[in-house]
Each structure stands twice: as structure tokens, then as C-alpha cells.
Amino acid sequence: MKITVDFEECLKDSPRFRATIEEVEGDVCELESKLDKLVKLCIGMIDAGKAYNAANKQFVNGIRELAQQSTKDEVIESSLTKFAESLQEMINYHTVCFFIPIDFDLRKFKEAKKQFDKVSEEKEAALIKNAQAPRNKQHEVEEATNILTATRKCFRHIVLDYVLQINVLQSKRRSEILKSMLSFMYAHLTFFHQGYDLFSELQPLMKQLGGQLDQLVVDAAKEKRDMEQKHSTIQQKDFSNDDTKLEYNVDADNGIAMEGYLFKRASNAFKTWNRRWFSIQNNQLVYQKKFKDNPTVVVEDLRLCTVKHCEDIERRFCFEVVSPTKSCMMQADSEKLRQAWIKAVQNSIATAFRDKGDDGEKLDRKSSTSTGSLDSGGEPKERSLKGESALQKVLAIPGNSCCCDCGQPDPRWASINLGITLCIQCSGIHRSLGVHFSKVRSLTLDTWEPELLKLMCELGNRVINQIYEARREELGARKPQSGDPRHEVEAYIKAKYVDRRFIRRPSDEELRTKVVSLSKQEKRLSSSSEHLPPRAPPPTPKLRPGSNVSGQSGQEMVKTLGETKIHNAAEPPPMPMPATLPPPSPCKEMAFYEPKEYSPGLQLFWASCARSLPDMAEALAHGAEVNWVNTEDEKRTPLIMAVQGGSLVTCEFLLQNAANVNQQDAQGRGPLHHATMLGHTGQVCLFLKRGANQNAADIDEKTPLAMAVEAANADIVTLLRLAKMNEEMREAEGPYSQSGDETYQDIFQDFTHMASNDPEKLNRYQQYEPQRP
To answer: For the whole prediction, is pTM greater than 0.70?
Structure first.
């Protein structure tokens, strides 16, 4: 009900006015109560709507996941994806309905009422005081009269303001409520209208799917009947002689001539037997534990092996596949299956010889070199340096006799990825930076591999400070000294290595000059101790008298190689070099081209090939990504270019700075492939120690081992096969096996030291030339 208060009536302050005011105040109180209730209900509605939308979003996500899982069924995938998109749009439309429809402010009315009540009481008190003033006390009469006059004047102002707020409230009440509710209704109208339009567009697809669904129901019923019939037919078959179904098929569509389960005896000390899924494919005998596992190659070339029955062990139905490097004992489930597998291996050998037509000389060379290895020439081996030996070598480098960061003399610690020496306080700060900034090692307590020691000797404090402190004096930064508070030293080290505040950034022209210079730098291959011209392969090393390599297990094979050790390569027999032998260093063949953009990554790329560790460290300091990919040069990485440059220390530096040892180029070849192709035995040894995947194949499906066998490189073949055998032994021994066989570790250590101290004895083979069809 609309109530209007007259301005003239309020000045009289009549009983009618008071009654009207009382009625208005009661109405406003009731209005406030109703509005509060409506707001609470609206908030509950909004919360429920948001919960509904959240549940809807989860439902839509479930539909999307089901669509992704149904990629093999195009109809289901496309339909579910379309439905999910439509429902998501409906959820987005629904959010327009989530707002509080009424926002009615009563604060001004309440404030005016408060003042009106107060001045009304004051006026009533003034009237009473004026009425009680005695006529014989003139000063009290005047005082009461003055107070009443002032109070009435104030009352008129306050009551007029109050009446104004009442009338404004009555007028605004209608418009605001109707406006809010109308907006709320329009929001719902928009929601349902957009939903109608959306589903109208979706309706043709729904009708189409409805027609397809009828056919799908019919097809599903037919397939169910066919499967039930096939199920009954198979149940009626006799499976007593099912093992005879296993037959050798050289023309199988999937390239697998034969496959099935066999028990395989492990080469560990316990000789445990494990059931594995074996197959003959691509002229190889392989097995796998699970379908998703990469197959493990038992015999790489069946032409080089023989197969025979084994009746001298306790188990039945056993047979043995013997290759020049190892033997593998297996057990079938029955005699018929054993005969089938033996016949399959024999047929595979015959088929391989007939199809490939390789001459016996090449096979003999491969089989003989597969067990070949290197010898140190009778000289005592230099073991990994530790203690004072490593300390003396590193501190002898100019600038290394004092801590790189604070200058304290006689440092005993080092950062191996930066190539600097540190005092004990700075080493602790470097450790706190994390290994992605600095890898700390003790010069006296830790063991130092020779390639790591060479890395420390090729860099040093003076080289690194020229990079990381190039602008220190220009910026006025004080270098801490020994004895300064730890927090000052820590702040300086973080500014130096983490924030790289003192590095001088090169201009584009300086960077271009640097890259061009590195790309054209003379490699001095003739005087390098790490990359010599290839020489002819040595004669095949002979095993101990009475040793039967073909019947040895993997562990026995490693021990035999450990005892025969390394063949003397000082005087290899003369052998004519092939006319098509490529130049010794691929870096010389690479013509420099003008790249689209000069960057620190490109500097690292060419510096790795040029074997310039200072330029590599500078590129990394300027922000070069250690795994930077040169998209203009077959996606090669700095580590691959380091292999091309022939430097073992360069590869070690990149690996210490988190280079990916398995990153491949455009030909699918990783660093291990390139090192094998170039005959860099030391690099092959380094990559295998750092976890290189020797089973990775390039686009020609050639693994590093296949390349080494084809190039007749006995040393690399030996390393790769030893690594594979050691991996198989550890796998067979279970999760509690040790890090590897001691003889295997000794052989790898021999190769490591020879690669660093006598590299000329390892670079004896011609470079690999991939065979193209």
C-alpha cells in the first residue's frame, strides 16, 4: 500500500502525522524483513546453481575423457565431443542467472528516523520545561522560551528531511523492486532462448545419430550371435595336441616368423628360470616380459649361431642357442614345442643366408671382432685419481690456487660443471644454489675420473671469472674477501651465478663474429690427442686355451673378456684403407651457412664442434640452452657437435651441465649413434656410463651395435655387448642386484683411462658409412 506523508502536515506534528509515521515505520520494518528473507533465498539459489554447474562441468569432463578413450570409433568420438561442447556452452549461459535480484538500501531512512526520534524527544522536553517556568522568574522564562524556539527550528528541519526520505523510499520501492525482478526474468529468458538456439542447431545431428543408433543395435545383436556361435565351436575342439599348432612361417604379415612362451635361464649365479614371450623376427631371436616392453635381443644375427638339444640338465625339453659371444638356455613346455623351436631357428638361419647372400668372409670378420677388445700394452693402468693427485693437478692451473669467489688460498673443493675451485664456505653456498647451478665435489675426498679432471684443467677460475665478472668493476660491485660475513658472500655468489648480474652481454655483431669464428676455427686434428686419423683394425684377440665361448653364459663371457682384457693395439697389422674413406673430422666437411638468427645456442653449437670450452661456458652464461636444437642443420644438438669435434672433455662438460645423452637429430641418431659411426670409442664408453640408450634405432632402424658390427669395430662392439650383458644380468638378478659385475666395471674403467691417457690406441677404425638402399 502506498503511503504519502504531506510536508505541511509534518510541521503541525499532529496526531494524524504521528499515526501516519507509525504506519510508515511499521511498513518499512516489514519490507526490510521480507527483503532480507528474499536475499537469503537468492544466495541459497545461487550457491545451489553454482554447485549444479560444478557437477555439470565434471559430467562434461567425463564425457570428454570417454571421447578421448574412444579414438578408434570415429562416430562415438565425434558425437561425444560435440555433445560435450554443447553442454559446456549451456553451463556458460547458465552463469548469467547467478546474481542477487534486489539491492534495496534502507540506510538513509534509518539514519533519518534515528535523528527524528531524538529531536522529537528534545522538543517534548523543551515544551515541558517552557510550561513549568514560573512567571516571577523572568530569566528562567526567557531561557525556556529560547530553548523551545531553537528546538522547534531544529525539529522542522529534521522532520522535513525524514518525510523526504519516507516519500523517496515509497517511490523508489516500486521502481527498484520491479527493475530487479525484471532483470532476473530477462536473464532466465536469455538463458532458455540461447539453450533453445543451441539445441536447435544440434537437432539434425541428434536425428542422424538416432538413425545410426538403430543400425548399431542391429549390428551389435548380429555380432553377439556370431561370437556365441564361435564360442560354442571352439569349446567343442580338442586341445590335447594344441602345441602342434606352433609352426615356422617366414612369410608372416607382421614379420614374426614364430612366437610363443619359453622359459629362459638367467645368467646370474642362481641360474633362475623366467617365463618370457619369445619371437623370431628380422633374423633375430628376441623376448619381452610385457607387451609394452622393448624386446630384448638374445641373438642379433641368427646366421652367426647354432642350436642344439640339452639333455645334461635336470629340466626337460631344454635347448640352447649358441652365438659367438654367449649362449642362451631355454625350455619349452613339451617335446613337440622344443622340436618346433629348434626347427624354426634352423629354418631362420637357412632363410637368412639364402635371402641376404652375405659371403663367409664378412661373417667371419663380424664374429671375430665381436669378442675383440683393447689392451693397455702391458703398461700399468692409471686408476681414478683421488686425494692429493687430483688436488695438485687442479691447483696447478693459473688462478685455481685461490677460491674463485672470495679469494681464500688453498681451496679444497670444486664446482665440476663450472670448472672452478672453491673454499669450504663458498662450496656450501654453491650447494645451496642447487645442482642446476653448481655441482660441488671435494678435491681430496672424492674420486676423480680422468675426463672430469681434464675438464677442470681446461677451464679454471681465471677463465670463468672473465665471463661471470666481466662487468663487476664497471658496476662498482665489491668482490667479497676471505673472512667476510657469510650473508655478504652468499648475496655476491647469487648475483654472480644465479642472477648473472656481472656478465657482459654481446651485441648482435659481436655474437655473429664469434659464431663465424668458431665455425671456421682450425681443428688442428693432426696434433690432437683425442682425434687421430683412422687406422686398420687389429687382429682378432685369441681367448684362453680350452675356453668355449659359444657355451658361456653372459657372466662367464664378461669374466673371460676381463681375463683376456685388451688386445695390444700399438702395432696393428697394415691394412689398405678403403678408397671411399671420408675425411677424419666431419667438422671440416661442414660448410658454414648464414643462419636466420644468431643466438647463444648457436654459439654453443659451434663452440662444441670447435672444442672450445671457454666459448661453451660463455654461451651457457649468456643463457644458451644446453639441449639447443639447430633446426637448420638436421636438428643437431651441441652434444652431437661435440661428438663430431672428437673431444671427450667437451662431451663431459655438456653432460655435467645437464645435456640429454639420448636426444636425437633429424635422422633419429643420438650422440651414441654418432660416436659409433665415427669410431670414437672413448665417447661411446662415456655415453654408456651416463645411461645412453643403446637400443635406440635411427630412421634406417639401425642401432649403435648394428653400426659397430657393420663397421667391424671390435672395441665398440665389445663395449656395447658388455653393457647389454651387464644390463641383462642385473635385470635377471632382480631389484636387489648390485650396480654391476666387477669385471665389467674393470673393463669399462680400462677403456675410460685409455680414452683420456692413450686415445691414439682407440681411434683405429674407419668411420662408419651407413648403407643406403
So the answer is: no
